[in-house]
User: Fold this.
Amino acid sequence: MDQAVSTETARPIGHMREGEEEALVALWTATGLIRPWNDPRADITLARRGPHSTILVARADGAVIGSAMVGHDGHRGWIYYLAVAPDHARQGIGKALTRAAEDWLRARGVPKLMLMVRPENEQVQAFYDAAGYIQEPRIIFSKRLDGK
Assistant:
């Protein structure tokens, strides 16, 4: 998917371009997605490194106004860093980015899409609920491999 057009927003959604790293970090900061223990620049580098992940971007007048990092392990796809600039919220951009991520995974034969939402983020839970996602009871284990 080099370029797709969202029918909801009539804004093109494409892959992240060289030189958009700082705009993405600023977007993720403005939308509260960055945590001190996660390095967003390292996440960008890792997502762009291989064929199993990408960063989709919505733009307006050449500026980054939305993003969705998407990747898969062959069975499960994941969305991270779904964000829309606050001054462009509630225009269907988040929905368009989610659908673009679904399409990207579907084109690669990935049968299931997963994502994680912080329990206190009720607004985002409502967004995914309205988009047809279901909550699945799971316990998530993690282990830091970077010593942080």
User: Anything to note?
Assistant: The first strand starts at residue 3 and ends at 5. The CA atoms of residues 6 and 134 lie 23 Å apart. The chain has four helices and six strands. Confidence is low (pLDDT under 50) at residues 1-10.
